[in-house]
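User: Round two. Same drill as before: sequence, then structure, for each protein.

Assistant: Same drill it is. First protein:
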Amino acid sequence: MKRDNSRQSLQPIQQRLRQELLACKYERSELARMAGVSVKTISAYLHKNVLPALDTFAKLCIALEISADFILNGEGKFPDGAELSAVSMQTIHENLSEAIATSGKPHKELAEEIGVSNRTISAYLHNGIFPALDTLAKLCRALDVSADSVLGISRI
């Protein structure tokens, strides 16, 4: 049952990502190169229930010139002129950890607010585990931070 709810919450995210991929001004091969994935992977994002890892998601947002917050929540568009500051899973982990730490929210409270266990919050902080895109959207709302800032997308 919980899995169905998770899939349901991912559907709008996947739909917005597909819409932006289809509207992209780049050929799939160029987009794949920019995101550091294969053309086959781009096709999987379009035609299968496959979503990118967070670092690839950030690269796709830059290439598509769209805000991560728009893809995750349907809110806002991409700021004019944006860049990636060495996007990597390590950078994302550091940004996410900092957002959690500076929120001042107890981990148990944060976990309850976004519908995960306290152990999951700990795994995000200490075990190199990353949230799914729908959970990232909930985390960003709960922490009152933009997904762009967590992913390392910044205005120039």
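Second protein:
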Amino acid sequence: MHKFAFILHPLDIGYVTRKFPLAKYLPPGLLEGLLPYLPPQKVSTITGIYSPFAATEGWFVACLLTSKQMVTLPQNFVLKRIIQAGRLAEKMGAEILGLGAMTAVVGDAGITVARNLNIAVTTGNSYTVATAIEATEKAAAMMGIDLPRAEVAIVGATGSIGAVCARILASRCRQLTLVARSKNKLARLAAEINAEAGISPEVTSHAHEALRRADVIISVTSAADTVIEPQDLKPGAVVCDVARPRDVSRRVAEVRDDVLVIDGGVVEVPGEVNFDFNFGYPPGLAYACMAETMILALEGKIENFTLGRELTVEQVETINRLAKKHGFRVAGFRSFELPVSEDRVAAIRERARQAVPAANK
């Protein structure tokens, strides 16, 4: 049996106080100031993962830095803390390590971490892409959106996940807008997509303008704060939020009942998995980035798989094939951790229809 570990980190101070109740008695500022001095910790043991071909087990390991600290503290310091968590995983017997949330983004997206460990490392981005696109296509169909004719926007398009999402969707839709901060990177990606797929995507660094036109949005930035607010979306839009921390503000769920926001990259894990840790989903469900590490362990593919900023379509296809082999599958729609029924999707679609001005129907 090949074993794995996966690095978690608190998205904000609230996660720390929920896991460690005594911490709530400390002022938030003091608690946040203490986190950089705390060593990595084993969070839980993961058991009960098996397919018709193999079984695996592993651990959640915590790097106790918040999302904000991951992007504001000196990069070398943050990388050292992630590497320390990886070394703890090594000592516990893990053969492959998954990098979760911002630990997969800092620095060179896992390359330096892998060089400083004696075990394989993956960011999980390949399977995240596969599941996000599958869920997005399914959601668009249920909302009555004809994807080949829809306006599709990729927010965070120049990142490793966003770029390969754009490449894959370029062969499935004709109106594609790439959104990111760097104009040079956007221009380069657009030229590559034009050469590969024969379409010329629009590019912009003005997210709000692109969002208001889009029928379908995949958002996968590495921002520490939300980037999509209620006023940014047109009625009937489908948004797949792949980012952790989230790109979509919770206010969207509170005030926009005419758009469908789904959590990207949520999958059912085969077997009778027990994570012994509550990260917001019901038993048996995991983020796709976590699942990629499990899939590689089940397959015995103990190697650095998804690292760095250059993610390929071939990697996405490979991990998707292995996932299906071992019984992983995209879970039903969830929005802000809560299930979304077919009836709810139908209601959102009807409210969107009523919200569209008669002149535009």
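Residues 3-125+267-330 form one domain.

User: Perfect.
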